Amino acid sequence: MGAQGEVPTVYNSMQRVKVYLLTDDGIWDDQGTGHVTVDYLKKSEDLGLFVNDADNETLLSHRISSDDIYHKQGDMIISWKDPEFSTELALSFQETTGCSYIWDHICSVRRNMHFSSLNGETHCNVNSAVKELPPVELSTLPLILKNVGESGIAGQLQVAELLLHDKYFFGKLMDLFRICEDLENIDSLHMIFKIVKGIILLNSPQILEKIFGDELIMDIIGCLEYDPDVPHVHHRHFLREHVVFKEAIPIKDPVVLPKIHQTYRVAYLKDVILPRALDEATVANLNSIIHSNNAIVVSLLKDDSTFIQELFARLKSPTTSAESKKTLVHFLHEFCTLSKSLQMTQQLRLFRDLVSEGILDIIADVLQTEDKKLVLTGTDILILFLNQDPNILRSYVTRQDVLFGLLVKNLLADFGDDMHCQFFEILRSLLDSYTSESQKDNVVEIFYEKHLCQLIDVITSSCPSNTIGQITDGETRNKKRVKPEILLNICDLLCFCILHHPNRIKCSFLCHNMIGKVLYLTRRREKYLVVAAVRFMRTLVSRNDEDTMNHIVKNNLFKPVVDAFFANGDRYNLLNSVVLELFEYIRKENLKILLRYLVDSFWDQLVKFENFSSIRSLKVKYEQSLESAGTRSTVSLLDHRKRVDERALEKEEEDYFNDNSDEEDSASVSMASANRVQSQSVLPNGSIPSYPSPRSHGLVDYDDDDEDYKPPPKKLSDISDKDEGVAEFRLKRKLVSKEEPEPKRLKWSPKGAKPREVVFASFCSTLSQTALPCKETASAAFDTPHSDTNENSSEPNHEEKGSISTSNESRGAVVENQDSSRSFSNSLHDSPDNRQHPEMDVNGS
């Protein structure tokens, strides 16, 4: 106690508390403030709580009890009711850390007190009660039951050891059971039942191995028949009279037969006799015994070469009766099932050995029998092979496709209420894409070439050919009756094929129009088949394949889906949801081909369901696609026209230089010089013509002798570069028109453009300067009229569209056009931008 006052300073604030006592009036009375510690009581080994004030006087001394009397209220208060003084006390801490610290100490002390009491009790029980088992007599049955069923963990271990060392205990107990059963002593029989159940619950593998032996097992089962909580059940009678052990092939190994019998009895006890009384540990131990026995049996049988050879010889023999063959197939199925107890490498080796012995050939013969239960047994064996190694079955199918055809045939057969999905699972595993390429391609080709059309024909033959859900009497007689479950399996298999090998199935769909045949399912009365057809369409659309979508649009394959949706009306069911989800997917993925096809073809029907957001969003998406398509087409048309206008004249220049060689250019220069002399002598007013502006593009220019001529306003010279392109565009559109003749045509080229005549004249000027350096001669070369170069003109249709002729028959038109051409030419020469000589344009470029 002296140490109680020497509390370290670091703990003062953390352990500072107020002590409260609950009075008879229900009021908490403050007993003072001090510091709390946990220490040993004076002259005792028990721990207690002590609270001392600043003067080291004890405010509280409490022995910590193992009873659950302590309560923690919030983070600051610990309260309890002291059993010694019948008072209620409470400690209010200054800090939450101190409260948690003391609370953990109290819990730790109470925990240690519980462990100490348990250890002392177990030690006392083992030393006092289970030193040896009492003799097996009718009067000692209660004491035996107490030792077996009511001892602790340590006592159970000791009892198990005593039972294993006592060789006569179980024999004496079974003798006593038979005596009590003969005397019909029900109370003693109930007590023996509890003793046997307690021995089993000891969960000792050695004891279980002993009681499940051939000598004791039937008597042990007899003891378990007398359960006081359930009516009496004759398990021994059932095992002796109704359970018959059949040997398909005589088993000569002395170890195998006892293991087989023991395994069955353990399983019967676990599943039938004591399903409610066994705990999880005992059930796990019993399962371990069964698993171990199965592994021993399969290992011994597979290593017996004589046994395996005799088994397959009987299965392949034509003289074997149908009943014997059925028994052999069931034995083979159980043998393959028990192989799961082996390790994986041993399982794989066993299955490969069975394949080499010809087990798959036997299964192929089994699938052709009329006994449907036997067919399902053979199917179970195939599933075991697929679960072990699918490549074993695939390699066999690629060599002999008879088995594959039998699987497809049985998929379409009616097995009553038995499982059709077994054949579906086998086919799906064989067609799985996650396999080696060679095997997968071979199996897939076999399926598509030989069996896909067969599945499609079943759908076609079982669906009506008229409107949805209506079958006439004639069609009822002619149509082949197929269970709806079979059609559902076919549709699911097709969806699986679309996902795993889309390219191969696309060829079959497009070439044979199989999509429309599958959609015949929308005509069935069964709504889940209609939903399956829509799900098939949804899977097909999810591939986003353009060829498939074009095929859908071309053959109007959405019509059955929309008709089924329309016929469903406003009913909110699975069909309604799956169709709306299909439309929503088309909208979200922006499948424009199907989007336009749906709205353009079926909006008259879909408009009635416009209250659904999916339908409204579909129409909005359709309108947006039309707007975007129209904008792009307009922009592309304007860009195309602009590029044509800008490059038309440049193309003429390129064509000119590409089509004429150097010799032709020289000949053109010489002919131009000769023609200048002739042109000067034939002018009507007898004067030398002035040089026409290359930008005016007038065909003939004359000197302006008319005093009454009034030149046009100079508007064109002020046009900006941007407006020049627009003006040229309008003039060109006017030239295209053939209905309106143009007696006065004024062609004006934009700035920077070089017509062919100008380029030709500039080129001639360059050549003439090199040959004739005289400036006047060079000027005369540029005065050649445009009519002399009409042979090389890039506009051969000018004469057809009102162009001016130099003949005497059209002199009036020449004179009329002369004034306009001359005026426009003068206006261009007057502008500063147009005073540069064409020779300078060529040299500058």
Automatic annotation (TrEMBL):
Keywords: Nucleus
Record Pfam families: EVH1_PP4R3, PP4R3
Record field: compositional bias (Basic and acidic residues): 709-745, 830-845
Region (Disordered): 650-753, 779-845
Domain PP4R3 EVH1-like: 15-113
Annotated localization: Nucleus
GO CC aspect terms: nucleus
Superkingdom in the source lineage: Eukaryota
Skewed-composition ranges (Acidic residues): 651-666
SUPFAM superfamilies found in the cross-reference section: ARM repeat (SSF48371), PH domain-like (SSF50729)
Cited InterPro entries: ARM-like (IPR011989), ARM-type_fold (IPR016024), EVH1_PP4R3 (IPR055236), P4R3-like_central_dom (IPR006887), PH-like_dom_sf (IPR011993), PP4R3-like (IPR051137)
Annotated Polar residues bias: 667-690, 817-829
Domain Serine/threonine-protein phosphatase 4 regulatory subunit 3-like central per the UniProt entry, residue ranges: 153-624
Identification of the protein by name: Serine/threonine-protein phosphatase 4 regulatory subunit 3-like central domain-containing protein
